[in-house]
Amino acid sequence: MAEKPWGGRFREETLKIVEVFTASIGFDKRMYRQDIRGSMAHAKMLAAVGVLTAQEAQTLVEGLAEVEKEIERGEIDFPVSVEDIHMAVEKRLTEKVGPVGGKLHTGRSRNDQVALDLRLYLADEMKEVLDLLRGLCETFAVRAFREADTLLPGYTHLQRAQPVTFGHHWLAYFEMFSRDIERMKDTLGRTRRSPLGSGALAGTPYPLDREMVARELGFDAIMRNSLDGVSDRDFALEFLFNASVIMTHLSRLSEELVIWSSQEFRFVTLSDGFCTGSSIMPQKKNPDVPELLRGKTGRVNGNLLALLTTMKALSLAYNKDMQEDKEPVFDSLDTIKGSLAIAIEMVRSLKINPERAKMALKEGFVNATDLADYLAKKGMPFRHAHEIAGKAVALAEEKKVGLEELPLAELRGLSQMIGEDIFEALSMTKSLSSRKATGGPAPENVIAESELAMKRLDELWPRSK
Ligand code: ARG
């Protein structure tokens, strides 16, 4: 019983199945670096305010550094009996430095310690996620620049609607993922607040310098209420929500690539390295990567709902329920990091088939709106112009030609306002370049926007050194 740090008031040993059931060491050991970093800052501060001697603090800090090296070298095993990473580190430290190891936990509780560890861990990891988001945004901006005038049918209701370009389409994704960067940065700001000093729930009687610990750990601020300090998991919920939105964006991209790479569309070809074959149908080339990206959205959404549900009726302050915060966070983290890394490569190596996209434009009468706009510009009320254009589509459909292939006489049969200049208005490239207000798909816009995108990215999240 003396084995357990809290063993004092117990007369019987913890049941083995209870130990197994309640231990978090199996998954929280991945926070060992953050746990040690937090403890070092705490020890230094205890010395600075006179709770420990300088010598004691130095012994603790050096001991912790050695424990870290041992863990890194895989020399420490973590049996469930140690319960969690906080106890595992302290236990090993005390074995090394002797009874002074027991002074590390002065003015601290595992409740504020675990809250700090998860914040430190997420803050470190979110920076990596931000680097990956930046990488994906760059990939879109580069492709947008290159494919600024490569025609593509734009869709609504998955029906061909109006001509856009591949470049314009990529910039839509740039916008989506750049908002993901903004959101993650916001969350990072609220994550970098130190709960240390909250104690178990009601602060501590020691003259702790909480700001010093926060500064030492590179945090911007301290949490200003001890009950909230140990029980707030909003930052983890925000992170999980951000992860869900990222996956939602990846899933929409993936869905498009699955459709576009199908035999029916053939707008794009996924490089062979990104596909697998079928064990029975020799002709198959399956878009496994985008399918799996789409599929993984489910588990990430599940993780968000899991923690929301865990937190929803918890009284203040710490409850053991909150130990359930870590696995969803770790799983979403691993999933988005893996997904973003592969998405970057998938988008970068994608081959487009401009001929197929052009063909689809032609068969889709996507210049019908241009015909209506042409008439409206000549003074016809748009509603009427819309009807005339609709009739022209019916006519072209019957004759199995594009609108631009109808003879002038037939077009004039629909409206005398139509003149020789209609053919310029109906040209796809003309239609495209006419939509040049900011946000529109005119190639000159897309070029300018893709250059601006790179600059915006540098302001949002500069490339890490
Ligand atoms: N393993 C625990 C967790 O992950 C650490 C905090 C334990 N605190 C306590 N009072 N039992 O939440």
Bound molecules: arginine
Main beta sheet, described?
A: 2 strands, antiparallel
CATH topology of the largest domain: Fumarase C, Chain A, domain 2
Number of domains: 3
Q: Radius of gyration in whole Å, from Cα?
A: 30 Å
What does the average pLDDT come to? Answer: 95
Helix content class: 55-70%
- The tally of beta strands, per DSSP, is 6
Total DSSP helices: 19
N- to C-terminal separation?
Answer: 50 Å
Give the overall silhouette: elongated
Structural class: mainly alpha
Detail the poorly predicted runs. Answer: none
Known CATH architecture of the largest domain: Up-down Bundle
**H/E element sequence:** HHHHHHEEHEHEHHEHHEHHHHHHH
CATH class placement of the largest domain:
Mainly Alpha
Please provide a written account of the structure.
This protein is mainly alpha-helical and 465 residues long. The chain folds into three domains: 100 residues, Fumarase C, Chain B, domain 1; 249 residues, Up-down Bundle (Fumarase C, Chain A, domain 2), CATH 1.20.200.10; 59 residues, Fumarase/aspartase (C-terminal domain) (Ribonucleotide Reductase Protein R1, domain 1), CATH 1.10.40. The chain has 19 helices and six strands. The strands form three sheets. Strands 1-2 form a two-stranded antiparallel ribbon. A two-stranded parallel ribbon has the order 3-4. Strand 1 and strand 2 form a beta hairpin. The two termini are 50 Å apart. Bound molecules: arginine. Arginine binds next to helix 6.
